[in-house]
């Protein structure tokens, strides 16, 4: 599939796809080729659907992973090969009904304070305090800090968009301590060469080690801290439009998926029956 692969890569480059998306789409196409051992342009729509059923019912891949395969095949057959709708059609997939897990405020505090090193505490504090994706957290630059407005510039985030989000004073203090200790040139969270940022896998390992040391229950990876950012802001009364902007979401419905009603918040809510006497 070398010629087709180059055609796919060209179209993805022209559309400015992120490297993570490029890798995921190519992987999905390779998996389809390995299943049938035939050129992908010769497969029928029914055969593509059969493979999709295979990854759902037999391989039992995660909902989000299956959605990537659906998107990859739509891109291949509709955008690259330009098959008409009557020749290629696969049903749309909705969003998963699974809600991302969240931690309580005391649990987040224990996780952030768990690492011995200042760099790891600062990394976790920035992820939670600014609601960052892990790919954004590892690439925080010195030039991104706006002390005058207490804002953080997130450069070329998801969708190739820049945005500003809130900067925590506590996280800023940790970054300043880290800078005085290591004097990084560009990125705060660098690997051993002190030039390139650490990888996402390293950040995940930092989070899991913090969970282990703190004894906090595991409800997911480091992305949980981003969920907690949104949920705790909601509990504090911050409007959803502000949270949407800080998190860099295009659609409000996406932000709505991060909105959890925590046990602490539920405990404060009274039944309307119990408020009738107060108003009488």
Written as H for each helix and E for each strand, in order along the chain, the element string is HHHHHHHEEEHHHHHHH
What is the rounded distance between the termini?
76 Å
Number of helices: 14
Helix content estimate: 55-70%
Number-wise, the strands total 3
| CATH fold field value of the largest domain | hpI Integrase, Chain A
Quick one: CATH class of the largest domain? Mainly Alpha
Kindly describe this structure.
There is one protein chain. A 3-stranded antiparallel sheet has the order 1-2-3. The longest helix has 18 residues. Helix 3 runs antiparallel to helix 4. The protein contains 14 helices and 3 strands. The radius of gyration is 23 Å and the shape is globular. The model has no long low-confidence stretch (mean pLDDT 87). It is 56% helix and 5% strand. It has 2 domains: 79 residues, Tyrosine recombinase, N-terminal domain (DNA polymerase, domain 1); 162 residues, Orthogonal Bundle (hpI Integrase, Chain A), CATH 1.10.443. With 280 residues, the protein is mainly alpha-helical.
